[in-house]
Amino acid sequence: MLNKKKLYSIALVSIALVLMLINITDAAPFAYITNSGSNNVSVIDTATNNITAIISASTLNNPYGVAVTLGGSNAYVTNLDGNTVSVINTTNDTVITTMPVGNGPFGATVTPNETKVYVTNSDVTLFL
What we know:
Elements: H1 4-24, E1 30-35, E2 40-45, E3 50-56, E4 63-68, E5 74-79, E6 84-89, E7 94-100, E8 105-110, E9 117-121
Antiparallel strand pairs: 1-2, 2-3, 4-5, 5-6, 6-7, 8-9
């Protein structure tokens, strides 16, 4: 039987995954794909399926989740091992800032009016 803490954790992860999938469509015609093992982000032209850029920065530390603003001007990348979120300017595909957000950020979503970014943090002790 699952206890309340584990059920709550499963619900948060499920919500975060749905929100991440919704945000993938916001970057059209480009997809921003995290490469956690390489500590970079690939930019893919969805019309041709070609990689148009690879974004590298010292602040990308096990990049995991991506959320893109509805207007497509910024992509927010969660850095699972860095406990931060990096903001990518999608016009020139560069990291413009990185901010601390808590332990183990893995999911993010941007509000429709682009005024807030919500980040889901994981606490590995919840999954034990």
